Amino acid sequence: MSGTGKGKKREEHDNASDGDSEAHAPPKKTLKKDSDDNSDEIVVCEIGKNRKVTVRIWQGKIWVDIREFYIKDGKQLPGKKGISLSMDQWNVLRNHIEEIDNALSENS
User: pTM surpassing 0.90?
Assistant: First the structure.
């Protein structure tokens, strides 16, 4: 019986991952293109070792990118771990900062 339950959890987890990867497909393409030309990228801040918040323009749209970077051949390049938020998504997150701060205070 426990083997069946584990399979279900894995299946549900796999489906959730599939949904996430579809939603983030354009940012992955952004990273590959922008790694050669970062002229439309503004580094807003570094939030940790090799982690940055940047604002970039891609395909005529503005994106807020929170991402890990790695060094290859002396160049710092964006990695796969991170998220690119559209302006709409950024505004939703920004409008919920107080709720996020309250949740953090309650749990720390």
Answer: no
